[in-house]
Write a structure and sequence with these properties.
alpha+beta; 197 residues; 4 helices
């Protein structure tokens, strides 16, 4: 009688689907949450990039000339429409020309030590009276300035699964574009010459 009961139990397949689903469901849920997290972050990054590009186009209008706060507000609103909890920060650095990005001011290295010193002449591209590693201007509102506009948006991941596999629980998206101020109050591009200390 007992052997027959065990044989019947081993042949019985009712409830097998529930057991199989119970074994597979954790993997399915993790996979779906991972896809949702990836898709959400991709969408948020795309929307932030779009807001930056729109700000770049808007900056060519005279209404926004020299009004960085209005552009920042539009970008912040666009980002927070997608990710309401996002913390959005802005950074601007202005240069006289596009070619000035990431370059030090030129100097004549008369003593060959690779450092601007000992009264060596230099071109004061940013007009601050001293030699600098960057040609960045102190003011980003000059006519025809090339402005590097950078936006950083940080927000918490909406799905907690990323932290389980070692990712940060906060996502930071950075978007950059270069804006060219319009020449509404055109100024001459004058570069002074100075001497290194």
């Amino acid at each position: 009688m007992m052997p027959r009961l065990f044989a019947d139990i081993f042949r019985d397949e009712t409830g097998a689907t529930i057991v199989e689903f119970a074994l597979i469901s954790p993997v399915l849920v993790l996979t779906l949450m991972g896809l949702f997290d990836l898709s959400y972050n991709f969408y948020a990054e795309t929307m932030i990039e779009g807001a930056i590009q729109k700000a770049a186009r808007d900056s060519t209008l005279e209404a926004y000339a020299g009004n960085g706060t209005a552009l920042d507000t539009r970008v912040r609103n666009a980002v927070q429409n997608v990710v309401p909890s996002a913390t959005v920060t802005f950074d601007r650095s202005a240069y006289s020309r596009y070619s000035d990005f990431g370059r030090a001011e030129e100097f004549t290295d008369t003593n060959g030590d690779g450092t601007c010193n000992e009264n060596e002449p230099f071109v004061d591209a940013n007009g601050n009276g001293s030699w600098d590693q960057s040609r960045e201007l102190s003011d980003s509102n000059g006519a025809r300035d090339a402005v590097l506009y950078e936006v950083n948006a940080s927000y918490d991941r909406p799905f907690p699964m990323a932290e389980l596999i070692g990712f940060e629980d906060t996502v930071t998206v950075t978007a950059r574009t270069v804006l060219r101020n319009q020449p509404f109050n055109s100024t001459a591009d004058v570069q002074a010459v100075g001497n290194c200390a």
